[in-house]
Structure formats: structure tokens, C-alpha cells
What we know:
Mean pLDDT of chain A: 80
Number of strands of chain C: 0
Helix content of chain C: over 70%
Oligomer: heterotrimer
Distance between the termini of chain C: 59 Å
Radius of gyration of chain A: 19 Å
Largest sheet of chain A: none
Distance between the termini of chain A: 56 Å
Strand content of chain C: under 5%
Low-confidence stretches of chain C: none
Shape of chain C: flat
Amino acid sequence: MIPATICVVLVCIGFLFFIGGAAGIIRFPDFYTRMHAAGKGDTMSVFLILMGLATYQLADFSLANILVAGKILFITIFIMWASPTSTHALIKAGFEEGQKLWTPDVEKEDSGE
Amino acid sequence: MYRLCIFLLLFGIWIIFSGQFDGFHITLGILSTAFITAISSNFFFENRSHGVANRLHQIIRIPWYLVWMLYQIWLSNIHILRLALSPIGMPEVEPKLVRIKTNLKTDFGRWMLANSITLTPGTITIDIKDDELLIHSISNLTTEGVEGDDMERKIAAIFERETTN
Amino acid sequence: MEKFFIFTGIAIFALMFPIVWRIIVGPTAIDRIVAVNVIGTKTTVLLVLIGMIYGRVEMFVDFALTYALLNFIGSLAVARYFDRVNPNKNFANSEAKEQES
């Protein structure tokens, strides 16, 4: 019962962050800020949801379940390691392509400076 | 010594992924792991001059650093969530390009710093050139966070201990 | 518990639609790539959830892992492509950086 409760709580919090990421992707004004919402709102929510599922999986304790939980943990580690890398690669590609930087003020900063 | 560590690490990954414990699979795992260790073991640790005590110190400190990182990610994720759901016009969103200088010497330390900055939502490392990092930050709060050298000191305490000693 | 998983899966699937909107509207190509990347991350979670629903997690976890790998490699490849496809801007930018340092 306790693992199921932990699972539900973690999945719900993770889903909240997913909603935040999706809202950010739609609403943020320029490429760089959208990148923030896309790259990292997801990292945390994937971490939380997969941890919740691994907890539920470990509820009945057996060797096969431990292996599955280990694989889920490995997916989490992989995403947390790969997400900064791909975010950095994409934002650098956008930066070198010369995307404009959005500022709330009237004067526009050049993205190269 | 290092080769043995890499071998055990890779073999653990093999065990997790294969999930079968009969003789055939274990033998296959040992053979392939040994092959990969033989051809590519010099990829993994850049500087092999550390003593055992130093490595042990690192191994103990890394989980603490990760827990601290998770807490930071959690805090700034809530910040991003609030920004994303803020009212029309987004008064708090003030994107900025920040340049910071780092005192970290090794490539691995710099990689760790850049990765940590990127992993913390609200700041992304765009470029790194020698000891200067170009960072895009989304609001004033995250800008202040990245200009403080909290994270850098923690990384230096773990990975570049021999330079301070 | 199974109902909860099914409901979560449907909700995550529904969250993909706003991002598809970003793919359709997105002003530049990189915006679209980022959106595709986000959908890929969501699909990884969705695959594990599907495994939970069908009771075959040990199989679907492998799919999810492969999907995460492909997603990562795909986004890196696209990033490299965008570095190459704009030789002039890339060159000008790096020159400016060299002058300023």
C-alpha cells in the first residue's frame, strides 16, 4: 500500500512539471526561453515519474523486479546525463545561427554581444 | 587497478541489461566486457595520478553533490513552473546573456560545472571558451543564482582537491 | 492501480498536442526540432507506462531505453547539421568572437 501511495504522489508531481513544460513551450516568447522550458521541465518530471514507477515495481520484492527497477534507474540517469548535452548542442546551434534574443524592454540586444 | 574498476562497472551494466544468470550469458558478458576494457579503458579517467585516498574522498562526496544538485533542480523547476504559468506579458521573464569566469582548471571540472548549470533550469551554458562561460539566463533570480560561485566551490572541493592542498 | 496508469498515460498523450501545435506553428526550424525532442522524452515515459499497464515491464523498459538513446542521438545529429548548414553566419560569428577576445 505504501509503495502505491508513493508512486501516485511522485507521478502526480511529475505530471505537474510536464504541464509546466508544455505551457512554457507554448507561451514563452523566444527560442532561448522555450529551450529552458523544453529541456529541463522535462528532466525533473521524467526523474519523478520513473522513480515513482520503479518504487511501485519494487513493491513485490524479487530478483526480476530489482533488475527492472535497475533498468528504469538507468534510463533516468541516462536522461539526466543526455538532456543537458542535447540542450546545449541545440541552443548553441541556434545561437550560431543568429536567433534573436527577446527582451522585455524596447532596446534590442544583439544576440552576438 | 583502473582497468579492474572499469571492468567491474561495465560488467555490472551487463548484468542489469541481460538479466540472465546462466553460464552462457555470464561467459559472454565476461568476454565482451574484457574486450571493451582492453580497447577503450583509457577513455574513462583523464588523470590517473590521484592516490587511493583522494579517489575515496571523491566517491564519498559525489552522492552529496548529487543530492544538493537535485534540491537545486527542484527549487528552480518550481521557479520555471511559476514563470510558465504567470499571467500574460510575463513580467518576470527577463532573459539575459551572462558571462562568468571560472577558476576550475581541469576539463572534467569545467564539464561538470557547465553540465550542472545547464541541468539547473533557468540557465543554459551556450558556449565555453578557456575559462569563460557564456550563459543564457531566464530571469533575475536565476541570474543571481548563477553569478554566485556556490556551485563552483562545491565542484572544486570535490574534483580539484589536489590543487588546493 | 492499473486505472491510474491508464489515466496517466492518456494525460501524457494529451499533453503532446500543445507541443504538436508548436511543431506546426514554430517560427524557425530549431523550434520544431526542440518540440520533437520533448515529444521523444514524453514517449520514453509513456513506453514504461504502457509496459506497466500490460504487465510486461521487463520488455518495454528496453524499448524505452532504446528510444531515449535514439532521441539523444537524433537531436545531436540535428544540432551538428545546423552548425554546418550556415557556414557564413557561423564563420562571421566565430570571427567576431575572436576579435573580441
